[in-house]
Amino acid sequence: MLCLAQPAKQPFPVVETGIPELRAALAAGRTTSRELVTQYLTRIALYENKLHAVITVNPKVLEEADERDRERAQGRARGPLHGIPIALKDNILTRGIVTTGGALAFDNYLPPYDATLVKNLRDAGAIIIAKTTLTELANWTAGAPSPMIGNYNAVRGFAYNPYDPRRDPRPGINSDGRPVLGTSGSSSGAGTAVSFWSANVGTETSGSILSPANQNMLAAIKPTVGRVSRYGVIPITADQDTAGPMARTVTDAAILLGALEGADAKDPATTKCTPPANRDYTKFLKKDGLKGARIGVPRAYYYAGLSAEEQRLMTEAIDVLKAQGAEIIDPADIPNITAVNEWGVCGGANNGRGRNANCSIAFAYGMKRDFNIFLASLGATAPVKTLTELREWNVRNTGAGAIRFGQSRLDISDEMDLVGDRARYAADRAKDIELAGTNGIDAVMKEHRLDALLFPSASSASIAARPGYPTVMVPFGFVPNTLTPPPPAGFEPRPSPFTVSFTAGACSEPKLIELGYSFEQATKRRVPPPLFP
């Protein structure tokens, strides 16, 4: 009898595969968590050297995958992410996995506990596959006179954008290896864009979820501050810090948000917003979610400086909203936008003591207060005990690569007197909320009875961050990457991704998810990076 060889079983594809599809395949036995993790690890091995999207791979990730597979075989599914690989920004403490914040002083540091959001993810069944690259200490290390490049850190160096993963070729600029197309912010997202994992968790103080999601053509949810516990996340300031999901679709981001959320006695702000039943945000994924919605267009400032291509895309986005039944209020300008923009963040050497009267010290003060509290939570394992010790360690280790761009932001934080400067901090924090929230976003929302404001790309990040308001971002197109000065002849920069954002007041995530999902389904403009099949 002639025996014919059976064709090899083709692995379940992970590239561009969403969380619902992964869950269905696992439930049906068409794949296993070990198979998924193996495929993702193979992609990391193939492409990581071009992107630097990863700082650390979980050394026990295959063991975790096997455990989830055993649980599934026994009829036990922990939750909505059972067996799904998720990556975390490397400022989120993860027991058993090195967590560095990108700071050389924390290189090879193993935390003594899991951040609350990590516990929530594990309870939901997620597999932590890796820690993603970030701007060192979430970009509160070096400001003026030599600001740190986005997504640079002393542990991993520069990260690269999968939509143009080349070094900047311009003479005098490329000597340090910086990318020609930035990944922006400090939560990368590059690994999610190229399917190194299903989705990732970023953190934001003012733009570090939204900006990298924009640059990497991802959907994202920057939550209301407090909706996701901040315990166990290396801080800038608790006033504005939040973790949140970055994914390839609004659906995936909504599923991940539900798994991240949860009340935490260690973070009282987690009681601010009431989660939906069973923390299930998928009920807000409504294809007709734009019908009857009132959406404002804040023309003043936010649309004035757009390029011709950006203007074209935003006009097209507004036309889509109208076609889907939304009522557009245009303009719906933020009433005191000039005052908001004139009142910036004290963020560099030129904003040190005696030179900070015209900016908010909330970040500088909050960093010293909250970073020292964070270090204390590490107990005897802390590599440094105070912000002062970190700055001193950095100076001693400049020859090893620490503080390549300086540490002006750490310097102005450490000179804060937590007692003597408390009244000034409180006044600045109140002004931040009044300008951006009460008499800013809240005022225009109330005046026009809006469901949301429509912003180009990540431009709402700063104003929404000050009062801690949420935003949902949706991929929409590409714009030219215009370099000034121009690149050498023969070098053509590839286009940069472009998104639109829906922003509203505190705890408005359900409505924003409705709007974002409906817009996404009507457009479906996300394009995966073509160089990473």
Briefly say what this structure is:
With 533 residues, this protein is α/β, with parallel strands linked by helices. It contains 16 helices and 15 strands.
Can you offer a commentary on this structure?
By secondary structure, the chain is α/β, with parallel strands linked by helices. The model has no long low-confidence stretch (mean pLDDT 96). A hairpin with a 3-residue loop joins strand 4 and strand 5. Helix content is 33%, strand content 13%. An eleven-stranded mixed β-sheet has the order 1-3-2-6-8-7-14-15-13-9-10, with helices on both faces. It has a two-stranded antiparallel ribbon with strand order 4-5. Strands 11-12 form a two-stranded parallel sheet. The protein contains 16 helices and 15 strands.
The major β-sheet equals:
11 strands, mixed
End-to-end Cα distance: 42 Å
Oligomerization state of this entry? single chain
Domain count: the total is 1
Question: Which value, in Å, is the CA radius of gyration?
Answer: 23 Å
What's the mean pLDDT score? 96
As a percent range, the share of strand residues is: 5-15%
Give the count of helical stretches. 16
**Helix share, percent:** 25-40%
Low-pLDDT stretches = none
- What's the CATH architecture? Alpha-Beta Complex
Set down the secondary structure blueprint:
Layout lengths: L18 H10 L4 H19 L2 E4 L3 H13 L11 E5 L26 H8 L3 E6 L19 E2 L3 E2 L31 H4 L5 E6 L5 H6 L3 E4 L19 E6 L2 H11 L33 E3 L2 H4 L5 H16 L3 E3 L7 H6 L1 E2 L13 E2 L1 H16 L9 H10 L11 H7 L7 H27 L3 E5 L4 H5 L5 E9 L16 E8 L5 H15 L10
Parallel strand pairs: 2-3, 2-6, 9-10, 9-13, 11-12
Antiparallel strand pairs: 1-3, 4-5, 6-8, 7-8, 7-14, 13-15, 14-15
Helix pairs in contact: 2-3, 11-13
